[in-house]
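Q: A reviewer asked whether we had any structural model of the full assembly, not just the individual parts. We don't, so I'm hoping you can provide one. Inputs are below.
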Amino acid sequence: MTDVLQHLIDAISLGSLYALVSLSVAVIFGVARIINFANAEMITVAGYVMIATVGLPWPIVVLSAVGASVVVAVLMNSLVFRWVRDAPPTSLLIVSFGVSYFLQNALLMAEGSRAKTLDFGSSLIDTVDIGGVRVSILSLVSAGATLVLVLALTWLLRATAPGRQIRAASEDFVMARLLGVRSNRVIALTFVISGALAGIAGVLLTINTATVTPSFGVAPLIVAFVAVVVGGVGSLSGAAVGGLLFGVLTVGLQVALPDQLKPYRDAFVFAVVITVLLVRPQGLMPPLYAKERV
Amino acid sequence: MLRVERLTVRYGPVTAVRDVSFTCSPGQVVTVLGTNGAGKTSTLTGIAGAAAGAVTGSVWLDDVDVTRAAPEARVRRGIALVPERRRILSSLTVRENLQVATSSRSDARAARREVDEVMGRFPVLADKHASPAGLLSGGQQQQLAIARALLCRPRILLLDEPSLGLAPQVIDGVFALIAELRAEGLGIVLVEQNVHRAVAVADETLMLRHGRLHHEDDTAVADLDKYFGWDTTTTGETS
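A: Here is a predicted structure for the entire assembly that you could use as a starting point for your response.
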């Protein structure tokens, strides 16, 4: 029983990280319709900034890491994406590839290709005993941070004027503009939110793995893309749920598969993903307005 | 005053609107008639800055050239569009749809008051203010679309087929509202397929055929009647 609980907490913790990255992808896609590969570098930058600032008090380390992700996100929008906004979706995809490779190579030049290690928050790797269950503190922090962020994001989107404008622009960008929503401002805001979410995911991932390379953010980003599609493209709650499920599925199969099949875990994970998409091509929770309107 | 000069809208090789010029003054209803594909909707989206195609020619509002302005900038200048099929933001509540239309205001309290005022004018929206706008009936959605446009504080209101898909008594309400708004001094450009109602409310009627403008003449209206299979002599005014 305690084993099951332990695995469950691991699953939720990994799922939380994926949910954060998925949300950071989905919030930009929702409004600007950009599938942004360069979200990976928002994550990576947070890792490098943590390594550069380690030794300072931890709130400063975390804040500067997240702040750096936001700055990178805002810059990639105002220097690149803003100028190609009306391009067809395939061009936007290629542009985002370009931004991603550019940043990866810039990091390669600045930091080298060898993995940098982080000696930070070692106490977070410790475990605590809760009712007989050994839980790593980092798991709890990951899940807790995700919960707080999802609640904050929900509040922002539901209860504030800028959030309302983001939801309006996600549903019908042109109509939102016809009602006076400023396109540049609302898209810039989605990049800020995306950068913050990616930055926090980057901080948690970096503490988890303790090493950062220039391609650090790519793997979680690919997972996030899959999670967004499984959750339902265009839906933020779908992205969060998709990310969470992907984490739960990964840990679940890691535990449940017999030892000789464990190396092929990801094949099983994606078999489930393919099955889900065969049954529900629109994803688990597609946005309501995606339905055909009469 | 709205002044449209040689407006041309192209979608790739197809020219939807060609050299359309007209004006619309405060308190005036300009009705644009035409069959499907004549370029009516493209004319309105071209004026509002929301046409998907390439737009040439110019659009002036009170002697300010807004041809290059973004749609959100034109809204701030006073051009509001009630688009074809209404385009209600169905995942937002009725109140949120109205609130989005106050995005250009800096004073949040004043904006809230204006939303309440508009809901006073459209009581059904006040009743349903918390429900998702996608659940409204067609007539209610049309009221919401117009209320939303009015919250943009327009001087020129562009209405694209406001009677489409509505029950006859609801259509009566829409046209009564158009007359009311005109009396308040709003300039209105009305696109309609409901020819006789639209002509009855119009100060000026324009005919679009294959993207070109023809000023009103009886043969044009009769042509349109033939197109819709209506007989001018029997489908007269019912109200």
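A: Points you may want to mention in the reply: The radius of gyration of chain B is 18 Å. Confidence is low (pLDDT under 50) at residues 231-239 of chain B.
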